[in-house]
Write a structure and sequence with these properties.
- This protein is of the alpha+beta class and 135 residues long.
- It folds into two domains: 70 residues, no CATH class; 46 residues, no CATH class.
- Helices cover 17% and strands 9% of the residues.
- A three-stranded antiparallel sheet has the order 2-1-3, with no helix packed on it.
- The longest helix has 18 residues.
- Bound molecules: zinc ion (ZN).
- The site of zinc ion has 8 residues, from loops.
Amino acid sequence: MADRYDLVEHSSVPLLRCSQMVSNSEPWLCGSPAPWAGLSGPSGTVAFHCDVHRQLADAPIAAGVVFTQVTLECRIRFAAAPPLDLIARREALHRLENAVRAAGGLLTVASIDAQRCRYTPEWRGRRDLASGDRR
Ligand SMILES: [Zn+2]
C-alpha cells in the first residue's frame, strides 16, 4: 500500500478542478474544470484554477503535474427501469457514469450485479406478504 508521500502514476486521471474558494458554505470551492495551475502558498502545493479564477503566475497544466486523488469505495443501488437484467445493468451504469462525470469524477466499476427484490414496507411484516394479504 502506498503511503501518503508515495506518488501513484496514472495515465487516466479525473478532471482537475478549480480550487478557488467562492463561499463560506458547501460547496465552498469553485470546482469548475481547471486548465491552469500555480504554486499555492509557502507549502509549495499546486493549486488548480479555471479560466475565471486564473492567477497571474498560473501556467497551463502540464504532464507530470501532481494532484491529490480522492477515492470513494461505495455501493450504489438503482431500481431497474428496463425489465431485462442485461439492459438494466447497462442503463444503470450509463446513469452512474453520467452523474460521476458531471461531478468531475472518473468512474471505475469493480462489479455490477442485478437481483430480484421485493419492497417490504416497515409497517407490514413479511408474514402479511407470505399469507397473500395485499391490502
Ligand atoms: Zn474557478
